[in-house]
Design goal:
Radius of gyration: 19 Å
Largest sheet: 10 strands, mixed
Structural class: alpha/beta
CATH class: Alpha Beta
Shape: globular
Number of helices: 9
Number of strands: 12
Strand content: 15-25%
Oligomer: single chain
Number of domains: 1
Strand order of the largest sheet: 1-2-4-3-5-6-7-10-9-8
Helix content: 25-40%
Length: 372
């Protein structure tokens, strides 16, 4: 809860399995939830992660499913969960496919950044370590945030998302989800243009399931390709070079008793990991390694929340000599441990999509309800 914003104390999701404070608030008409770890001390810089839920989800449901608040205790960071209401989208989806929500100082991206600034006004946030991640429509919005506010977000995480401006209307968005993006190189150029004078190389980590029938896994490949071309333009000023997004390392892995997966790592011009992609075998549309108590999760996949945080905290907005934020626990690699259940379980209701979207056909139903 922000100091000058009344919260709803005591309304944290049932079966809370974190130790900090998770409270609701409202700023400029948008509701949000903010998690503050018990270790927070005013005056000491702390990273901030923005978590963007998918269609039909709520911030509380998303927090339970991703277990991100528990990881925030371990990694010592604030977690902000903006809420998308039905009045903005009948399916509670972020409107990533509408032009008015794909530009800087406009629509939902501007509202989300306003929330970030409000948190920064009330807490000692490290401006070099602000990150964004999301699933599905929330992942698509995270991509938009990175393209339109690269001076705010140091890195992003994309779970079952799509490339920047992959569509600018609802019918086109359904085709993109079903088939992927026709020209990731062009989308890379559009993202580069959207950055304007704030352009910089953006680190990106993605997760996608091979059995995702809601958002085709081709989109995971296209998100990486789009950001490869965007970052290449930032670095070289041209996209005419005869280069392709080829991974520097391809590493197979597996979760004991769970899914196998492949990690693809793409280096920058200095040989440092800048893009990562995880392709998870047999996983459908969901958050990899999430808790079964939340919606749209797959507990049998590698822990996306932990892998994202490891990736994020290895990158800052601008070069700094400051030490990395202190962690209270050092997680191990995904292939070496079973997915961990929460200490206590929550029972969020399984949401369903709005009826009117059914008229758009099976593809639309998958987009707005998240049915696998």
């Amino acid at each position: 809860m922000l100091p000058d914003q009344p919260g709803k104390e005591g309304t944290t999701p049932a079966g809370q399995f974190w130790t900090g404070t998770f409270a609701a608030g409202t700023y400029q008409g948008r509701n949000y939830w903010l998690y503050v770890p018990l270790s927070y001390r005013h005056g000491t810089l702390i990273p901030l992660l923005v978590m963007l839920h998918g269609c039909s989800q709520t911030p509380g449901d998303f927090a339970v499913g991703t277990e991100m608040n528990r990881y925030a205790d371990q990694y010592h960071l604030l977690v902000l969960y903006p809420e998308q209401p039905r009045k903005a989208n009948a399916g509670k989806c972020w409107n990533w496919f509408q032009p008015e929500h794909q530009a800087r100082d406009s629509g939902e991206p501007a509202e989300i950044v306003a929330l970030v600034e409000q948190v920064r006004a009330g807490y000692t946030v490290d401006p070099n370590r602000v990150y964004a991640a999301g699933i599905s429509a929330g992942a698509a919005m995270a991509v938009i945030l990175a393209a339109t506010y690269p001076d705010v977000f140091a890195a992003i995480g994309v779970s079952a998302g799509v490339a920047y401006k992959a569509s600018t209307n609802l019918p086109g968005s359904l085709l993109v989800m079903a088939r992927g993006n026709a020209d990731p190189r062009r989308q890379g150029q559009l993202a580069y243009a959207a950055m304007g004078p704030h352009r910089r190389v953006v680190p990106v980590i993605t997760f996608h399931g091979t059995n995702d029938t809601t958002v085709s896994p081709r989109n995971g490949e296209h998100v990486i390709s789009q950001w490869f071309w965007t970052n290449h333009l930032v670095t070289n000023g041209t996209s005419d070079d005869q280069v392709e997004p080829v991974p520097a390392a391809v590493t197979p892995g597996s979760v004991p008793g769970g899914h196998s997966f492949t990690e693809y790592v793409y280096h920058d011009q200095h040989g440092q990991p800048m893009l990562k992609k995880y392709l998870v075998e047999r996983m459908k549309h969901g958050w990899s390694g999430g808790a079964a108590d939340g919606s749209f999760t797959d507990p049998l996949g590698p822990k996306a929340s932990r892998l994202m945080l490891d990736f994020f905290l290895g990158h800052t907005l601008y070069p700094t000599s400051d030490p990395q934020p202190q962690r209270t626990a050092q997680p191990s690699a995904p292939a070496e441990r079973q997915p961990e259940p929460p200490q206590a379980s929550a029972q969020p209701s399984k949401p369903s999509g709005p009826r009117w979207l059914r008229r758009l056909g099976q593809g639309a139903r998958r987009l707005f309800t998240g049915k696998q």
